[in-house]
Amino acid sequence: MSLPQDPPRSFFPFGNPFRMISPKGTKLSPQLLEILHAFEKTLEERLEKLIPKSKDEVVSLSWMTSAMQALCESHNDIKTLMTDLDLPVMDWDEKWIDVYLDISVKLLDICNAFSSELSRLNQGHLLLQCTLHHLGSSSPDHLFRACSSLDGWRQLMSSKNPRIEKCGSILDDLVESSDMPKVKKSAKVTVWMQAIYGVKALTVFVCSVFATAFSGSTKNLMDMDVADIYSWAPTFKVLQNLVNEEIRVRFSSGKFTVSNELEAVDFSVRELYPIIQGVVHTIETESHAKTVEKLGRATENFSEGLDLLAKEVDGFFQVVLSGRDALLANLRSVTLGNDHILGGKSDAQVVN
């Protein structure tokens, strides 16, 4: 059955909220420029690695794993950049802190949604394993159980995950919360915000692709309009256009998923299902054996891909969580330090 084609979503329908044009007269020192260029070069290299060599790689579980790895590495780089810039938390504007904490909560929500979908797909893998186990026997009872397991698989794949269904609104909120507050910027802050912009663009792109792949609909697919002033922008546009275009083509052709591994499993299931439904006498045929073997290979590839992807999603969750915890810990230490100073002054006044 053909799926309705959703219109492309613009990432910034009302303009770019990440306007990174430095105030007139603000110049970056050679050292800051070197730090920024190194960061953006690394980001561009990661984007290049994500560009599929062929359309067959869009969107495979291995590509999704690489994309999640890129997110983990880029978010870790942001924490390293804070150290390189020597920009302590006490110098952060309170509005930035609120935005950062809000974004981190939304990213954790998205990670939880992705993890729940991967768990659901793992349940499907168990049903496939049961099917293959029962097909290894010539008993009519085992054939009945194999058919029952495939029924369970088909029902699971036709159902919707409520958490994934909410990803669209979370992504919308994430984009809205990404509008950095207008505050006075120093040279260091300008570098930091420009780096943050690149990581946010990568994050929203990857998360929108994941949400699209898991939901079976292009309504969560976003098209980001990145300004050409960034050195990584051309590479990003090539990546985004290639991936998003291929996803839309696949869904417009009636596919229920854009995952190559999941599509391979579903194809084998649809091929095998009528065969075992129509079996009256347990006669092992060459055609039947080849179909079962094909399902076995597809199931194994599917399982391996799920395991690797689940580890990376969990890794990204930990990266976001550790960054959030580190910020809160620094804020507490700064607050305690200020309270200690104020307390000391207060004691001094009493002595006087």
From TrEMBL:
Highest taxon of source: Eukaryota
One of the protein's GO biological processes: root development
UniProt cross-references to InterPro entries, sorted A to Z: BPS1_pln
Pfam families linked to this entry: BPS1
Protein name: Protein BPS1, chloroplastic
